């Protein structure tokens, strides 16, 4: 393989790695949002219970 072919392969691998990292970051953020929404629902339920008491 020529140097330019190796460079292209390395650049492609780097782009894929960056894309995978971005996808992982988005998954983490999405999970965080879901956790916050669940916590919010739990707080609302708790406050409703306190009003009933």
From TrEMBL:
Residues covered by region (Disordered): 1-23
Record's compositionally biased regions (Polar residues): 1-16
Domain of life: Eukaryota
Name listed for the protein in its UniProt record: 2791_t:CDS:1
Native source organism of the sequence: Funneliformis geosporum
């Amino acid at each position: 393989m020529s140097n330019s072919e190796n460079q292209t392969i390395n650049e492609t691998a780097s782009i894929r790695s960056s894309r995978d990292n971005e996808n992982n970051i988005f998954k983490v953020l999405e999970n965080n949002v879901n956790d916050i929404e669940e916590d919010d629902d739990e707080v609302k339920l708790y406050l409703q219970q306190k009003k009933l008491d």
